[in-house]
Each structure stands twice: as structure tokens, then as C-alpha cells.
Amino acid sequence: xxxxxxxxxxxxxxxxxxxxxxxxxxxxxxxxxxxxxxxxxxxxxxxxxxxxxxxxxxxxxxxxxxxxxxxxxxxxxxxxxxxxxxxxx
Length: 89
Ligand SMILES: [Zn+2]
Hints:
Layout: H1 2-9, E1 15-19, E2 26-31, E3 36-39, H2 47-52, H3 56-71
Antiparallel strand pairs: 1-2, 2-3
The protein binds zinc ion (ZN).
């Protein structure tokens, strides 16, 4: 599953970032081998996620979000957190 997630991450052309019109919430469109999935932080449309709670798509999306968060300047974060020291140098 992790290999699948890394494979998805290695192919940025599979990802399209978008925002939900209703509430502006960001989501990703992921083109898998056989299907296209829609992912948000709390929901994935693929069967594997619904049945098991985790799948290569949700894992890849989580890894992508963590990667993007790590690149943020701490001053750009909306809320100061107790684990902010992780971002100091
Ligand atoms: Zn999935």
C-alpha cells in the first residue's frame, strides 16, 4: 500500500488540486490505475478506503499534505502550536 502511495506521489501528473465550491475546502483529484478518486482530509471515494479506512490514495494524500505543511513558513501557519519548535532552526 505504501509503495502504491509513493508511486502516486512520484507522478504529479496524476494529481489535480481543486476546491469544493460549496465551502472552499481543498481536495485532490487522483487518477489511479483504473479509476479517478476524489480525496479530502476526511473522505475518499474509493472502495478500499470505505472498507478498510485506509488505502494508497488516502496515504498518498496524507503524505502530500504533510509535505506541503513542512514547506510552510511558520509565520504563515494560521495558528501557533505547541509543536512549533519542530519548525525552528
Ligand atoms: Zn483509495
